[in-house]
Amino acid sequence: MIDLLWLVIALPLGGAAFLHFFGRYVREPLSGWLASAAIGTAFFIAAIAAVPFFQGEAEPSTIPIWEWMPALGANFELLWDPLAALMTLVVTGVGTLIHVFAIGYMHGDERFHRFFTNLNLFAASMLTLVLAGNYAMLFLGWELVGLCSYLLIGFWHTRPTAAAAAKKAFVVNRIGDLGFMIGLMVVFATFSTFSYSGIFERAGEELTGGLATAIGLLFLVGAAGKSAQIPLYVWLPDAMEGPTPVSALIHAATMVTAGVYVIARSAPIYEFTPFASTVVASVGALTAIWAASIALAQRDIKKVLAYSTISQLGFMFLAVGATAYVAGIFHLMTHAFFKALLFLGAGSVIHAMSDEQDMHRMGGLFRKMPVTAVTMAIGALALAGIPPLAGFWSKDEILAADFARGGWFYFLWIIGLITALLTAFYITRLWVLVFLGEPRWEEKAHPHESPRVMTLPLIALAALSFVGGLVNTPFRLTLEHFLEPSFEGVHIQHATDDWLTLAILAGLSILAAAAGAGAGYLAYRRPPERWRRFEDSFEPLWGTWEQAYGVDDLYGLTLVTPGRRLAEAAAFSFDAGVVDGAVNGVGRVVRGMGDWIRPLQTGFVRNYGVLFLAGAVVVVAWLVAGGS
Amino acid sequence: MVDVGWYMALAAALFLIGALGMLLRRNALVMFMCIELMLNAVNLTLISAGRALNDLDGQVAVFFILVVAAAEVVVGLAIIVAIFRRRATASVDELSELRG
Fold this sequence. Notes:
heterodimer; A: mainly alpha; two-stranded antiparallel ribbon; 2 strands; B: about 100 residues; mainly alpha; elongated
């Protein structure tokens, strides 16, 4: 089966190509089903190919596809190891469910097939990223997912806000990519190859001085762009302008985790730079609490989930920065389940409310759409970290690993714990505002439960969010053993072995989650006037959170406006004045000279004849006079 | 044998007639004939100088000029006929579109 692994990328790519050229001849639901079938088949191939890893008997293997630039170690080759296998299964598995959901969600859109073209292209790009056997191919996938993200955020490109959001995402990612690219150049200058194996084998000898730290920090810049970490997170909330399945697939479950994946994949490099790792963890912790506090006060249901995603990505950075790579990847996986579920649930709600996203105008939807409500409740509890749901196990493992590392990481652990409390609060607020209380929507809204094609993926994801955490509990570290071959020779931070400490830590995080969820429930179960007064009592803090600390305005004032001024000065002053002025000036001089000698051309043959003759006479006279 | 100077004088006279006709006449056809006159005045100088110096180069040059002049006549006459057809006049004073 491993020989067929290339199909995992080729199938969605072929689906995208087919739909691109022939999609308009395929009727509406069929093109969606074709795209879903392409990625679903890829899932099955990957699952079968991953079986040897589940049995714990296979070594990581590299599958060459074709030689691209062999001298640089940059070939099309797939690295099939447990880490790549897990990422592939998450991308294709969650991806398939989201594809199916989108068939219902995008119903009636006039560019239906185009949506699935882009979605399949994204899947192929993301799989290129995770299956790449070297940094060059990874970067190819890295840029391609950025492109697909741009295309899908701006899918409804006739809406100016969507077009602007797509542009913003692209530009902000460009900044991160620049750092990543410089990092890759440093890597190549050091090792003369892009291949993972070639780099990681010699990491110990070559990475002297500050080289490892430089590479680690430059990779962090790239990862912060793609995974929306401080200070480059501002594009992700805006990216919610895209259709909700896109938010679920790209901006929650898969693409934004690429940064976490790159850091985990580069673990043998971070091995030599505890400093860069600590920076990664600190950025993650800061982002986690920063975004969680913003999520508290958002009114737009998708904005809450967007900031929540940023916050949870911060948790993953907190893990991989503490070299708890398994915990980070574990949280990546569980987060993919429950955040995709929450986004799809939000999509179901938005769909039912005819594109209403303001939670202040929802409420009481439980009875109207019970399946969405229950599945979202499972997702919310999983995100909040209530045992035994998925989020509890992964988040607790991250916090325990940070605690075990000690020193500065005690401080990060406290931040993580506070964030867990905030997380539980805002997600409970979201659920209660949407599904409980009196309806705050107008009668004509007519909310209704979504069709089965949308609820079935919700149920599947709810099941995964429920049991997904059991793959790696302190009692049975299945995932840890599974991932071992990918992190050979790398120090992995574990939680403590002491069961009492572990129990106390787990108790603390359960306490935080329960306190947050309880407070959220009690505060928002009350009538609107009461919780409005509750929110007002936090002023001016609440307003600051609602405005997301004004970071967008700050960036606008310090970066965007000066940048735009510079561009305007270059375009309308320098180019129009100096460059065009020089060109036009030359033209004007030539024209002036032309005006000056024009009268010579009288149009009368005889004048020309006289001049001609006079010239001839002069020449002859000169010759007669002796010449030269 | 007649002195070569006479030939030269005749050629000079022909050239002068051609040049003056070229400058003074308005009819394109007559001006064209004047140009031919000047050409043949030059031919005369070449051939007589060649004879006087006992050098064949002069005659060779004349043959070249005859051929080129024949081609030039074809083109020139065609232009004049074309203009005459369009304008019903051959006066060059009316043809001053290319005035600067």
